[in-house]
Design brief:
381 residues, alpha/beta, Quinone Oxidoreductase, Chain A, domain 1, Rossmann fold, 17 strands, 24% strand, binds zinc ion
Length: 381
């Protein structure tokens, strides 16, 4: 089989041919990969880490469990190729089933993990597909626990299904954890304004989920520096107000967001899929009384603001990581019920051998929506 591997962080990715197809572990499976999404985290992993703030860097090699060489890729969809001899599943998973793989296994043994809330696990070391073990930039991938495989309906196209375990799920989590807040804001204030920062891989999902899960009268604004990304949102999702923030100062962006907001007083909920200092400042200065800020971008911003502001404006800050396994199943059900939610999601498909150039396009901001690699050695998967 083929795979693309990071041997040494920062050095060119290597394409390997004629690697042996792995064996299924006892409790797991081998999935023949059909498509694998390319995430910013794959870029971070290839580079060796990411900026925390003020020149500090999080290095993967300093974290227990992370290793190189390693095949990146954690947005996997494919077909079950082989099953371990003790692989048991709640359902009736069988060879040939189309599945997505939940890639964030964590410890797989604490109470949170066993109940499907893996993203609340605080045991170390964690276990992630494409970072602590070989991932989906390959024709086949090992999933160590079969219970993390989720089948999905034919109505979800395979390249879109591949995006569910990370970009789809993280965006879903960001929106899902705001549902009760938006409802109560609507009740208290009579209206609610939600702003999505960043219409990239996550933001495209985020806007669609916000429209689907929040009350229909919720105002949704989407900001981005790329007109094409905003066009992809507004042409597909009803009643979204686009704001192009290219070449604007922070203060100009704040003013535009505030004056666009339904109350004229600011924003109730920010979904920040960028995570830069600039987006934080715009978010924080745009928030209205009792405003809430969800951050899930990892682009390395630094937050510095007066704590009294938080008290006086009753600001709530909420970090969003990937979603839980329970949410992945909920997300698949939502898309099964409402296939139109992802019908026009922008994405591009590239051959596995182009993994390196796709990473560069992502770094250069040239990808609209998600870039997805086609794997699996044939075109019929
Ligand atoms: Zn990811
Ligand atoms: Zn755990």
């Amino acid at each position: 089989m083929r795979c693309v591997r990071v041997d040494v962080p920062g050095e060119p990715l290597k394409l390997h041919y004629n690697e042996p197809i792995p064996e299924a572990p006892d409790a797991g499976a081998v999935v023949k990969v059909s498509y694998c999404g390319v995430c910013h985290t794959d870029v971070h992993f290839w580079e060796g880490g990411y900026t925390l703030s003020k020149g500090q860097t999080m290095r993967y090699l300093d974290r227990p469990g992370f290793k190189y060489p390693c095949v990146p890729g954690h947005e996997v969809c494919g077909v079950v190729f082989s099953l371990g001899k003790n692989a048991t599943n709640d359902g009736d998973l069988k060879l040939g089933d189309k599945v997505v793989a939940y890639p964030w296994f964590y410890c797989n043994s604490c109470r949170a993990c066993l109940n499907g809330y893996n993203n609340s696990c605080d045991e170390v070391p964690p276990s992630y597909l494409g970072m602590t073990q070989d991932g989906g930039f390959a024709d086949y991938v090992v999933v160590p626990y079969v219970r993390y495989l989720v089948t999905f309906p034919m109505s979800i196209p395979l390249p879109i299904a591949s995006q569910l375990p990370c970009s789809g799920l993280t965006a879903f989590n960001a929106v899902d954890e705001g549902v009760e807040f938006v409802k109560s804001t609507m009740e208290i204030k009579g209206n609610c304004c939600v702003v999505v920062f960043g219409a990239g891989g996550l933001g495209q999902w985020g806007v669609r989920f916000a429209r689907a899960l929040y009350p229909p009268e919720t105002q949704i604004i989407c900001t981005d520096v790329k007109q094409e990304s905003l066009d992809a949102v507004t042409s597909d999702v009803k009643d979204v107000v686009p704001i192009l923030t290219r070449n604007q100062t922070t203060e100009e962006s704040v003013q535009r967001v505030k004056t666009t907001s339904v109350s004229g007083k600011g924003v109730d909920l920010v979904l920040d899929f960028v995570g830069l200092s600039e987006t934080f400042i715009v978010a924080k200065n745009s928030l209205r009384m009792l405003g809430r800020y969800h951050v899930c971008g990892l682009l390395g911003g630094q937050a510095d603001f007066p704590l009294p502001d938080m008290v006086l404006h009753r600001i709530q800050m909420h970090g969003i990581k990937i979603g839980s396994f329970v949410q992945l199943k909920k997300l698949v059900k939502l898309l099964e019920k409402t296939p139109s939610l992802c019908a026009n999601l922008p994405y591009s498909v590239h051959p596995l051998v182009d993994a390196q150039s796709v990473m560069h396009q992502l770094i250069d901001g040239k990808v609209t929506g998600r870039a997805v690699l086609r794997c699996g050695e044939s075109d019929d998967c």
